[in-house]
Amino acid sequence: MSLRIYLPGDTTAVALGADEVAAALLEQASKRSLSIELVRNGSRGMFYLEPLLEMEHQGQRIAFGPVSAGDIPGLLDALAGDAAQHALYLGATEDIPWLKGQQRLTFARAGLGDPLSLAHYRSLDGFAGLEKSLQLTPQAIVTEVTESGLRGRGGAAFPAGIKWQTVLDTPASQKFIVCNADEGDSGAFADRLLMEADPYQLIEGMILAGLAVGATRGYIYLRSEYPKALDTLNAAIAIAQEHAYLGDNICGSGKSFHLAVRVGAGAYICGEETALLDSLEGKRGMVRVKPPLPAIEGLFGQPTLVHNVLTLAAATTVLAKGAAFYQDFGVGRSRGTLTLQLAGNIRCGGLVELPYGTSLRQVIEEFGGGSYSGRPIRAIQAGGPLGAYLPHSMWDTPLDYEAFAAMGAMLGHGGMVVFDDTVDMSTQARFAMEFCAVESCGKCTPCRIGSTRGVEVIDRIIARQEPAANRELLLDLCDTLEQGSLCAMGGLTPMPVRSALHHFPEDFG
Amino acid sequence: MTREWGGLSIQQVIAKRVQEYRDVSGGLLPLLHAIQGDIGYIPPASVAAIASGLNLSRAEVHGVISFYHDFRSAPAGRHVLQICRAEACQSMGSRELEAHARNTLGIDYGGTTADGAISLEPVYCLGNCACSPSVRIDDSIHARVDAAALDVLIASLTDAGESK
Known about the structure:
By secondary structure, chain A is α/β, with parallel strands linked by helices. In chain A, helix 11 links the parallel strand 7 and strand 8. In chain A, helix 9 crosses helix 11. Chain A is globular. Chain B has a four-stranded mixed sheet with strand order 2-1-3-4, with helices on one face. Chain B is elongated, with a radius of gyration of 18 Å. In chain B, helix 1 runs parallel beside helix 3. Chain B has eight helices and four strands. Chain B starts with 9 loop residues before the first helix and ends with a helix. Helix content of chain B is 45%, strand content 11%. At the A-B interface, helix 1, strand 12, strand 16 and helix 17 of A face helix 2, helix 4, helix 5 and strand 4 of B.
């Protein structure tokens, strides 16, 4: 009987040496005439344990990690005897507290099997949402999404149902579904993880969105920084086409949906939906004035449903299990689950999916396990490069969109970047302005020029030149950026700057 | 230019790719990626051919090439080393790593080492933020890269390392 071993092919696992581990495993197995079946699964998101090697043992999966190539001979010895004695033994994967303490909906399948196996996807309720959608009218699908309370996961948290309804209600000869997979926020990797571990879920979400709003074409706009996700998506789309999940006769229903991946070219601004649409049209990624809303006049001037990867993926759960099931998770107007990504200077970093409403402190302490460096944590930047730096006093706020907005912060895409006490917050504020200067599309003057002026003003504050006057100037500049920019790039760059100034004034002289 | 790609001249490569993408909706970005994939950069002399093929002005094509960080108008080194400059990597010491890379290679961002082995570029997030600092070399991403690990990676990219 052959031994089935799982070793992720995910970007982070491979970046930590998973391919070398796989090579060592195959070499040792052949030396020992051991029959093994190696499955390159997706990651479960426990990145601090990658490369995480799992094996099937007495009906359950047991895990070892983090494994390096040099560990393989000893590990195979241990497997022949008492595996539990091995130093890297973690017990049954499902019982690892870090994983067990989560409530996974969108990421329930992540890391369980070969991401490209359709049979595996189907065996875990895959395409249940699509099958149900094929029995429903477009309006019934949209109503289900509306009633679930699903909100956009890209950062703005706009109610998904309103967008779906608008696209459905706008007549056109061609409508589009566009997936925003331009996950540019530092600290965010949930989209990448999902696309690499469970690509069919995104594909299914896009197909059923197409059925709902009457769109027969879809594009996934993927950032070029994700080469592995590109390969996985392209392969998955080809397989889905072969098996009639995509094409002109979806599952024999006579309905059409065509899907293609388009690769970005290294521009953070293309994560903004209208800049993304311009980029998809083959232009510079310039932000558009709204209205018209993309739902009415989007890609090539046609009604377009633009959603983040996780929103489209979550729609499969909503349809498969019903709006009421999804509604049952969360608090207030934040329904369903939140995918937090613990990143930066954190001991146990990775993807944590929980119902909304848990506090940041709970997540950082229970899952994160403190800083990687072992030094005290000083600040957490929540929601990406345009999000606020939060001091200790703000970590007890429940993780929901409204509570974060009320304290001048945002959850955004759920990336949480942890900094220890060696961080200099004036340097971080300066970087926020510098990043805006590098990545601004240039359409709005406050963003295009104000960001460069911001760097200069912060430099003067750091050099102790008229600090009080320059501080006032900086705050005034922040107001101008916020009020005078079309999109979140200029509009939210003040958030990290102001939060650094306000909560960590000691770093500004 | 005398170098050839699969027996084709630069002009022929570009003509072939333009033909392939001229009828693709919004095809300029995929076309530029394809040309850069073939030749390694987008020759400024090709702008006119691309523009006329896609029925755009040269200014529009130039504007797109210069807007996106990925597109280059001159050849890069044999390998491209990108160092993540974003916040998660900053929290784990990427600023020191950047300085180390510049000093070791003797070049700044945008530069290529004298032996033509390595071009150094900044990148803003590789989606590997739980195991920072991250660097990308061509299409492979490396995690938890400190100065010593970077030295090993760099050594593997130089002529001596490559011939091993």
